Amino acid sequence: MAFYKISNPTDHRICVVMVGLPARGKTFISQKLVGYLSWLSIKAKCFTFADFRRKCGHLSPHALEFNKNTGVINEGVESNDEDEDEEVIEEQALEQIRKWFQSENGVIAVLDDTNITSNRRRSIIEFCQKNNIQPIFVESWSEDEDFVQCNVKDMGRKSIEYKHMDPLEAKQKVMENINKFKKNYEPLDFEKDSDLTFVKLNSGSKEILINKIQTYLQSKIVFYILNLDLKPRCIWLSRHGESLYNLEQKIGGDSLLSKRGEKYSSKLPAIVKESAGLKEKDIVVWTSTLKRTQQTAQYLTNKKLQWRALDELDAGICDGMTYEEIEEKYPDDFQARDENKYEFRYRGGESYRDVALRLEPVIMELERQENILIITHQAVLRCIYAYYMNIPQEQSPWVSIPLHTLIKIEPRAYKTKVTTIKANIPAVSTYKVKGTSHVGEAEDVYTKPYGIIKDTSS
Ligand code: F6P
């Protein structure tokens, strides 16, 4: 399916320009948007001006001065002519974006900066016009104090500017910075900016106002942002318990659980409870329509939902076979799949790309929901995991997602946290090693589950 593979003629260059005060979720939106687009094979990149200024050696984290002409913050610039310096830096940073579009055939650049003055935005528009780029402004604002304070805390702890400081001092500095920006903030305006394509998102209440969205890609961006809930939440991922087919090393099918798989299903409620510390009513369980995932969820008394989109990758004519049998009967297909596992489509079945595309509604719904436990299958979990962890497509089919393991994911603006909780119930490995039909967990660094690993044996 080449539907999302945009070859990028020049009319498909979009620059998403973030607008808003610090601590309004701009970085989170930017990172999530780029992750989502990349996951859909749309070439996207996030450009952070603060990073660029820092690289130019123009930043000292503490001395923050607002430059009224350019609408950006000068942070400890030591030159005598700060305005000129800022303009040069701005131009160089925009030049990076231009180069990326040109040399890398980029489709969507996201400019993660405050861009709070009209002047600043107009200079970005000029740049876009010159380079045949469509600008779309995304303003994130909020008067919800809890939401802002939560972001202030996150910035203080994780952003490069503040993370070396004592938490209280960092919080104070972030607040000082916000107050400086507030004085010069010119929100996007339906009258003054009526010619611009923009979105105003109230991140606290999720109210969204839209002006002049014209193209398919612009509306795709808006639809995603509209569904993003910026509140902190967790997602738990688990494969079904070990199945009878797993014991026989067969792929696909709709078999029941093995004895050890049953044991995992009976232990799962306790593991989830310990990891989540939430009441059952606060977590919804999603399964596929296949028996082994429903059997795994049988002792969970949470609300449950079945999704056909969560069914395992369809192995077509190879369904029910072992890898050894496939290698013997279809050696060319077997080799071709190892060479490009993401794109390889089983005859009469699916590829990883097909699975990712059918998962799009699941991902969209996940972004809207609060706490979800997904019980599904190896290939499907690889795709979901790759989305949250920004794993490149070619690596995603090789990620190790062992049986009898619960993975907790906490998406955050600066880094997604992963905790892997082992149920301590033995199970076979279903990991097919590249280049052979052998099965066993791999050594490669990209194939290991990431993050903190916990064991429930203690
Ligand atoms: O072996 C278990 C299984 O879920 C199969 O049903 C499925 O075909 C396979 O894993 C997907 O993994 P891979 O893409 O590595 O073959």
TrEMBL record:
Catalytic machinery residues: H240 (tele-phosphohistidine intermediate), E328 (proton donor/acceptor)
The keyword tRNA processing is assigned to this record: no
Keywords: ATP-binding, Hydrolase, Nucleotide-binding
Family the entry assigns: In the C-terminal section; belongs to the phosphoglycerate mutase family.
CDD domains: HP_PGM_like
EC number(s) from the headed UniProt entry: 3.1.3.46
Database matches in Pfam families: 6PF2K, His_Phos_1
PROSITE patterns given in the database record: PG_MUTASE
Domain of life: Eukaryota
GO biological process: fructose 2,6-bisphosphate metabolic process; fructose metabolic process; glucose metabolic process
SUPFAM superfamilies found in the cross-reference section: P-loop containing nucleoside triphosphate hydrolases (SSF52540), Phosphoglycerate mutase-like (SSF53254)
Binding site for substrate: R239, H240, G241, E242, S243, L244, Y245, N246, R292
Protein name in the entry: fructose-2,6-bisphosphate 2-phosphatase
6-phosphofructo-2-kinase domain segment(s): 6-232
Gene Ontology terms for molecular function: 6-phosphofructo-2-kinase activity; ATP binding; fructose-2,6-bisphosphate 2-phosphatase activity
GO cellular component, one term: cytosol
